[in-house]
Design goal:
This protein has 65 residues and is an all-alpha fold. The chain contains two helices and no strands. Helix 1 runs antiparallel to helix 2. The N and C termini lie close together (10 Å).
Length: 65
C-alpha cells in the first residue's frame, strides 16, 4: 500500500478522535457533553468510515498491481 493511503487513513482517524475531545463551548453535542464538534458521534463515525474506505481502496489498488 502506498504511503499516501496511510497518510489519508491517519488524518481521518485523528480527526475522528479530535471531534470527541472535550472543550469549553456553549452547547453540548449529541452525546450530552461539551466538545469541539456539536455533531460528535455522527462526524466521528463518518470520519472513521472514510478512513476505512481509504484503507480498503489502498489494499485493493495494491492487489491489482
Amino acid at each position: 500500500m502506498k504511503w499516501y493511503f496511510w497518510v489519508g487513513v491517519v488524518i481521518f482517524v485523528v480527526l475522528g478522535i479530535f471531534t470527541l475531545i472535550p472543550a469549553h463551548v456553549t452547547e453540548p453535542n449529541l452525546l450530552g457533553y461539551y466538545s469541539f464538534d456539536p455533531l460528535a458521534p455522527v462526524m466521528t463515525i463518518l470520519l472513521w468510515v472514510a478512513a476505512g474506505a481509504i484503507y480498503w481502496c489502498g489494499k485493493e489498488k495494491g492487489k491489482k498491481l
